[in-house]
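Hi V.,

You were right to ask for the full record rather than a summary. Here it is.
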Amino acid sequence: FEVATECNGFGLITSGMVLTILAAGIAGRRVLAYVWLVPLSAVIGFILNLLRILAICLLAPYFPKHYALLHETAGIIMLWSGLGLIGWLAWRPVAPKTTNIIG
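Predicted structure:
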């Protein structure tokens, strides 16, 4: 099989990484958070792309005349699921620092 350029998952992976960088910056995350959030977003994008391919392969025999609709629907669901999960992980507000005053 030959995978089209727009179907290889790099769109979700790269847009997830960019979303992570922007959302973590806006949320005021520390540099250490970037170190684990950016690779995590790439892994999430990779896994959801695999799930998209699996869903298409499993459902295509049941909808042979509607393959294009199935392909687009699975792609949109996985794209928004991935970006939603990545955004939720990166955009959560940082907990305020508490200071203990003993006195």
